[in-house]
Design goal:
Layout: E1 2-4, E2 18-23, H1 29-41, E3 44-49, H2 69-79, E4 83-85, H3 89-92, H4 110-113, H5 117-132, E5 136-140, H6 144-156, E6 162-166, H7 186-191, H8 194-207, H9 213-229, E7 233-241, E8 254-263, E9 266-275
This protein binds adenosine monophosphate (AMP).
């Protein structure tokens, strides 16, 4: 496995398929599922490890974001990765004021709560795509809105890169694996799985023949209340269209139930698909 700190050290063979998994490091089984999928499907796999300052708000956890490069590199090596790209901020952003903005889907939900976040994501992913030049790129459905933004980026700019969205990897108790779970206190860690359990119970109620919107609103509002009573500071819980992420007004076809909530100072997100 090679470690590239500069774009010109990546040297992949463009006559063979290149799979790419962008990450912010602090790798866990969620990242490894994406990497395994790329190794399985592509001739070569590149992983990037870059904590992207542009996607953090001024009051967010950029400085404290967990970093463990040595461990990450060992995990990539044993997963069969060909090259890990570990650039510096200065290498990635020679001009600080460059930004790609994807309208619409970037402005909703997390885009509202974290202004500029998805512009930061779109910008880094576009830059990394230009450096790595992958055929296929892998993203996790845990970050459902991010998947929608990347989908728009690739199709809107005609980048010609195939996308794979990989199912969320969870702890045995249902909590979605996340680098930020490391912030949870033991007490918060006990409460955290309620987020997914709540999504599950809302899904069951929605599928239980309740196909009218006013009733689904009530079910979702009750779920919000119960999360608040359990100690969550709920940012949003909503049933949305899978592509546009607009709230759905008629329950038909497929939809996504999305949630963001804080426990203490840790903000968690999760989502579940609902096939009606
Ligand atoms: P991050 O390092 O948090 O930026 O995540 C890098 C990639 O891993 C993103 O595409 C995430 O959606 C994906 N990812 C993070 N957590 C999980 C998980 N629990 N299951 C599947 N993919 C994940």
């Amino acid at each position: 496995m090679r470690i590239a700190r500069h774009p010109n050290e990546i040297t992949l063979d463009s006559t063979q398929t290149i799979g790419f998994v962008p990450t912010m490091g602090s790798l866990h089984e969620g990242h490894m599922a994406l990497i395994a999928e790329s190794v399985r499907e592509c001739d070569q796999t590149a992983v990037s490890i870059f904590v992207n300052p542009k996607q953090f708000g001024p009051k967010e956890d950029y400085a404290n974001y967990p970093r463990d490069e040595e461990r990450d590199l060992r995990m990539c090596e044993s997963a069969g990765v060909d090259v890990v790209f570990v650039p510096t901020v200065e290498t990635i952003y020679p001009y600080n004021n460059i930004s790609i903005s994807i309208g619409g889907v970037s402005q909703l939900w997390d885009g509202k709560s974290r202004p500029g976040h998805f512009d930061g994501v779109a910008t880094i992913v576009a830059i990394l795509f230009n450096i790595v030049k992958p055929n296929i790129a892998y993203f996790g459905l845990k970050d459902f809105q991010q998947c929608a933004v990347i989908d728009r980026l690739v199709h809107g700019l005609h980048l010609g890169i195939a996308l794979r969205f990989v199912e969320t990897v969870r702890e045995p108790d249902g909590l979605a694996k996340s680098s930020r779970n490391a912030y949870l206190t033991p007490q918060e860690r006990i409460i955290a799985p309620l987020l997914y359990r709540t999504l599950h119970s809302v899904k069951a109620k929605l599928l239980d023949g309740v196909a009218s919107v006013p009733e689904s609103d009530v079910i979702i509002e009750e779920a919000r209340q119960s999360l608040v009573e359990s100690g969550f500071d709920v940012d949003y819980i909503a049933l949305v269209d899978e592509k546009l992420l607009e709230p759905v007004s008629v329950l038909k076809g497929s939809a996504r139930l999305i949630v963001a909530a804080k426990i203490g100072s840790t903000r968690l997100i999760d989502n579940i698909g609902i096939l009606l």
